[in-house]
C-alpha cells in the first residue's frame, strides 16, 4: 500500500487488472501518474476513453475496428476466398505484422471450453458459418492457439466447415505449444501459415 488513500488504491487496482501487470508495476505506474504533470494523467485517461468510444467490432469478421466493415474486410485487394480464423484481435495483429497473408480473417472472441461454459454460442462460430454459406470462401485456415481449447476449437470447426465442402487447414509447427499467436515471431508465423495441414 502506497498511501492511506482509497483513490490511489483504486488506481493501483486499475493497473493491476491489466494483463502482465503485477503489484509492483501497478504501484510504479500509479506513482508516476501522480507525480507527473496533470496533463500526463489526462492524456492517458482521454486516450482510453476516446479509443473505447470509437472502437467497435466489424460486423463481418468481428475484429476490433473504427469503421464497419473494417479496413481489411473493405480492402479491394484482399483475397476473399480465404479466411483465417483466430481467437482474438491480437491474432490478427500478429499475422498482419509478420506473415504475408492477404486473405480475410474471422475473430472468434474466444475458444471452446466446455468446463468454463464456453460453447459454440458463446464465440462467433455462428457468424463464421453464415459468412461461409454465402459461397465466396474456399479455404478456412484455423489459427486458434496451441492450447487444449484452441485444438478442440480447430477440430470442431473442421467438422462443421467440412460439411460445407470447404477446405479446412490448421496452421503448422512452430507456434509454441500452450501459447497464443502474438508470442510467435514473424518467421515462425510465416512458416506456420505456409506449412498448414489439411483437416477436412
Ligand atoms: Zn472485418
Assigned CATH architecture of the largest domain: 3-Layer(aba) Sandwich
Uncertain segments: none
Can you tell me the CATH class of the largest domain? Alpha Beta
Instruction: Report the portion of residues in β strands.
Output: 5-15%
Q: What is the strand arrangement across the widest sheet? A: 4-3-5-6-7
Tell me the number of strands.
Answer: 7
Q: From the 3D structure, determine the CATH topology of the largest domain.
A: Dna Topoisomerase Vi A Subunit, Chain: A, domain 2
**Quaternary structure state of the chains depicted:** single chain
What is the number of independent domains? 2
Bulk shape: elongated
Helicity range of the residues?
Answer: 40-55%
Radius of gyration: 20 Å
Number of helices: 8
Terminal-residue CA separation: 55 Å
One letter per element, helices H and strands E, the order comes to: HHHEEHEHEHEHEHE
Mean pLDDT figure: 90
Ions, cofactors, ligands: which are bound?
zinc ion
Global structural class: alpha/beta
The major sheet is characterized as:
5 strands, mixed
Amino acid at each position: 500500500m502506497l498511501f492511506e488513500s482509497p483513490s490511489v488504491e483504486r488506481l493501483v487496482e486499475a493497473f493491476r487488472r491489466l494483463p502482465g501487470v503485477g503489484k509492483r508495476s501497478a504501484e510504479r505506474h500509479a506513482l508516476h501518474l501522480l507525480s507527473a504533470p496533470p496533463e500526463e494523467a489526462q492524456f492517458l485517461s482521454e486516450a482510453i476513453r476516446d479509443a473505447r468510444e470509437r472502437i467497435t467490432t466489424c460486423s463481418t469478421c468481428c475484429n476490433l475496428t473504427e469503421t464497419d466493415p473494417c479496413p481489411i474486410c473493405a480492402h479491394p485487394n484482399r483475397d476473399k476466398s480465404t479466411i483465417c480464423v483466430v481467437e482474438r484481435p491480437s491474432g490478427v495483429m500478429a499475422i498482419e505484422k509478420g506473415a504475408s497473408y492477404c486473405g480475410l480473417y474471422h475473430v472468434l472472441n474466444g475458444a471452446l471450453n466446455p468446463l468454463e461454459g464456453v460453447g459454440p454460442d458463446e464465440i462467433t462460430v455462428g457468424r463464421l458459418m453464415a459468412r461461409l454459406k454465402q459461397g465466396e470462401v474456399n479455404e478456412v485456415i484455423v489459427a486458434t492457439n496451441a492450447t487444449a481449447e484452441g485444438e478442440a476449437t480447430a477440430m470442431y470447426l473442421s467438422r462443421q466447415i467440412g460439411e460445407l465442402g470447404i477446405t479446412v487447414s490448421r496452421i503448422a509447427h512452430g507456434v509454441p505449444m500452450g501459447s497464443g499467436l502474438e508470442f510467435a515471431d514473424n518467421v515462425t508465423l510465416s512458416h506456420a501459415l505456409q506449412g498448414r495441414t489439411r483437416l477436412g
